[in-house]
Amino acid sequence: MAAMEGEHNHNDNKELKPLLVYGPPLVFQLFESNNSHKYHFLKAFSSDLPLLQFLTTQNVEPSSIRAILCNPYQQVTADVIRLLPFLAIIVTTSIGTNHIDLPECHSRAVKVVSIGALFADDVADMAMGLLIDVLCNISAADRYVRNLVPSKLWNLPLGSKLGGKTVGIVGLGRIGGEVAKRLEAFDCRIMYHSRSKKPLVSYPFYSNIVELASNSDVLIRGEIKGAGLDVFENEPNVSRELITMDNVVLSPHAAALTSEFRLFL
C-alpha cells in the first residue's frame, strides 16, 4: 500500500511543472501552498548536495527545468545556469540582481525577472513606519508603559518630529523613490546617494555616502540617534547588542508581508 502511494505521488509530480527553488524567498511556505497544484517544487536550498546530485535524488533531469525561483542570498552562478540546458527564466524576489550571473544569462537567452518592485509600496510604508517610530520613541514608549511601576514618574527621553527634517536616502531606486514621495508630504528636505546622479531628479545628489550622512538630520553630535531595521547581516540571527538598545526598532524582514502582497501570491 505504501509503495503504491509513493508511486502515485511520483506520478503526480511528473504532471507538475518542475520549479527549482534555489534559495527560498520570503513567505515561501505560503507561495508553495498556494501553487502546489501547478509546480513540483525542487527545494535545492534544503539539501547540502551539489545541484546535479540533488536533482538525481529527486528523479529529475536537468533538461526538464525551465525556471528558477531564488532570493538575493543565494548565488545563481554560470555553472548552475550551464547545468540546466533548457533554462528559460530566473525569478528573484529581490530588486537587485547582483547574485545572478547576468552575462551568462544573456549569452544563453535566459530571462531574468525581478519581482521586488511589486512590493516597493509596502517596503516604503514600512520604512516610514520605522523612521517615525525611531524619531518619536513609539516602541520604547510602549515598553515603558507596559513595564511602568505605578509610583514612578514618567521619565521618557524626548522624541522628535519628522516634519521639516533633512533626510538622506541611500539608493534612489523604486523603493527609495517611494520613500521620498512619502517624505515630501512631511515637508522634508530630501538628499540622496546612488551609483550615479539621476538626470530627472531635483533632490541634491551626494556621491559620497559619508558626506550625505553628515548633512542629514540623522546625526546628533556625530552619533546616530537611532535605527529602524528590517534587514540584518546574518539573518535570521540578530545581534544581541541591537536587541538590547532602546533606540533601535527591529522588524524580522517583514516589510513586504502584507495582506495585499499575499493576494499576489
From TrEMBL:
Q: Which InterPro entries match?
A: D-isomer_2-hydroxyacid_DH, D-isomer_DH_CS1, D-isomer_DH_NAD-bd, NAD(P)-bd_dom_sf
Q: Give GO cellular component annotations, separated by semicolons.
A: cytosol
Which Gene Ontology terms cover its molecular function?
glyoxylate reductase (NADPH) activity; hydroxypyruvate reductase [NAD(P)H] activity; NAD binding
**Which Pfam families does this chain map to?**
2-Hacid_dh_C
Gene3D superfamilies on file: NAD(P)-binding Rossmann-like Domain
Q: Where is the D-isomer specific 2-hydroxyacid dehydrogenase NAD-binding domain?
A: 129-220
Q: Does the keyword Oxidoreductase apply?
A: yes
Q: Which keywords are on file for this protein?
A: Oxidoreductase
Q: Which protein is depicted?
A: D-isomer specific 2-hydroxyacid dehydrogenase NAD-binding domain-containing protein
Source organism of this protein record: Crotalaria pallida
